[in-house]
Design a protein that fits this description.
With 279 residues, the chain is mainly alpha-helical. It has 2 domains: 193 residues, no CATH class; 71 residues, no CATH class. The model has no long low-confidence stretch (mean pLDDT 85).
Amino acid sequence: MHHEQDLFKMGGLRSKLPITFATMLVATLAIIGFPGTSGFASKDEILYLAYLKHPALWLIGVVAACCTAFYMLRLFTLTFLGKARDHHAYDHAHESPVSMTLPLVVLAVGTVLAVWLGWPKAFGGDFHIEAWLASAITFGQLHAPHGEHGSHQLAWALASVSTILGLSSAAFGYFSYKDGLTVAAARAAKFPFLHDLLLNKYYVDEGVERFLLGPIRWFGNLLWKLFDVIIIDGVGVNLPGALARVFGDFTALFQTGRVRNYTLSMALGAAVLLYVFLK
């Protein structure tokens, strides 16, 4: 893309990057939990085990999965489908070298085949890889944890619900961006508050700056100016130096450089001492 990394300036790269397109398609399907991919097995087994702990955990996981499905189709659609939105960058786009595409292909193939090497027990599989990893997972434990008890029917029912919701969110992402940014711009104009809220990431950064980093920075400046500048540098370092300088200037008033004055001062001092001791 000629060093272009802005997603909104991409589009139509399917023909320009065929290997990247195909491997990204597999990755997208896996991440959204499309049936038959390793992402489906791992995601829905996690959701099933979360449900056995508490249904609220399952619901939170499903909402997160739906958000993931939406933004993955948004990413995939804006990048590879539709029309190019920056023709200069599109004209310079080319496929990556083999050193980058070969690992993508290996990972994509593994994404599809891995699920058949270890189908989860929750869905009636043997999950042989679990027994292979068990010694490492339970190393040093006196009692190995027992698996959660449930039913295959419940696992499949929950997986069906989460899959339907996830694919619906993915479809929503696709239809929202298949024609570029037109639909998204119309929604932003229709719901400006919601658009600004999402665009600014719920103002989390601003909240952290105002209520956490700001007070910490203010307290740090207080410590710096009060203790470091005033007490340590001012009282501890500069004040003794200033007193020494003033005392030296005061003493210098009595240093005339005339020997007779020094002799007179010594004589007067000796007379005073004699008076004190002989009194």
